[in-house]
Specification:
Blueprint lengths: L3 E12 L2 E12 L3 E5 L6 H9 L6 E6 L2 E2 L5 H7 E4 L11 H8 L7 H6 L15 H13 L5 E5 L7 H15 L4 E5 L3 H7 L2 E6 L2 E7 H5 L2 H7 L2 E7 L2 E7 L11 E3 L2
Parallel strand pairs: 3-8, 3-9, 6-7, 7-8, 11-13
Antiparallel strand pairs: 1-2, 1-4, 4-5, 9-10, 11-12
Length: about 260
């Protein structure tokens, strides 16, 4: 059995003559929270769909626990992997309990699971009547109710207020301590810094940085790939990134500051 839960090897993807992803190599072990970051159009969502098996690369292979994804059935993939897309629309008038039942192994839900996601009082509600935060909790719960080994989530905290962002990402982080491998597309670098064990920076269709979180956020290359410069503020053993336009960069600047 492979030591890696999910792998991408020499991946290349094209759309017409445009190369979307090139020379992608990624190996993620069990129980990591990996933040996939990068500017708009970098290829983050494209890569996540490839890892989920929804799309196939023009070149290269995806592996789940050492098995080639292209040789696995949809049912076999679903047993190991859950994919939460960027925009999850529910077109039918489903109740929350219906949505959970579609993803669960049985029609009964453990009380502890419902409490974990704070949805025990939502089971009889129609999904479309829920607030954005409630919908996000339900969709994440549906993604995790079958206890997959891997969660692929595309901006699951987008459009949520700060409290709901923290709650949702903490739930994912807590699950990695129990063995879940999570690859999460994120735009907020400070949230990525707070929750991720590892950050992968994608730009121009290629992996530009891939390392432990602290190493990536301290790298000067991060500024180049986001076309800004970052001041680094260290507070309570955590580094906070403060972005500025290049035109505002002082001629002589120490980018690492300490809060007092």
């Amino acid at each position: 059995m492979s030591e890696f839960t999910i792998q991408a090897e020499n991946i290349k993807v094209k759309a017409g003559q445009k190369i979307l992803l090139h020379n992608i190599n990624l190996a993620i072990p069990t129980s990591q929270f990996v933040a996939l970051v990068g500017p708009n159009g970098a290829g983050k969502s494209t890569l996540l769909k490839l890892l989920s098996g929804l799309n196939r690369p023009e070149k290269g292979d995806i592996k789940l626990a050492g098995r080639l994804l292209k040789k696995m059935t949809s049912a076999e993939i679903a047993e190991q992997l859950s994919y939460l897309p960027q925009r999850s629309e529910i077109y039918w008038d489903y109740r929350v309990s219906d949505i959970l039942e579609l993803h669960a192994d049985s029609s009964s839900f453990a009380a502890a699971f419902l409490q974990e996601f704070d949805i025990e009082n939502l089971l009889d509600r129609q999904f479309k009547t829920l607030s954005g935060g409630e919908q996000a909790r339900v969709l994440l719960a549906a993604s995790l109710i079958s206890h997959p080994a891997i969660l692929l989530a595309d901006e699951p905290a987008a459009a949520l207020d700060v409290a709901h962002q923290l709650q949702l990402l903490k739930r994912i982080k807590d699950r990695t301590a129990e063995g879940l491998t999570a690859i999460v597309v994120m735009h907020d670098l400070n949230l990525a810094t707070r929750f991720a064990d590892r950050i992968v920076v994608l730009n121009n269709g290629e992996i530009q940085l891939d390392d432990a979180t602290q190493s990536v956020i301290m790298s000067p290359a991060l500024d180049l790939h986001f076309d800004v410069y970052f001041q680094r503020l260290t507070m309570d053993l955590q580094t906070i990134l403060i972005p500025h336009f290049h035109s505002e960069k002082p001629a002589r600047e120490n980018t690492l500051l300490k809060a007092v």
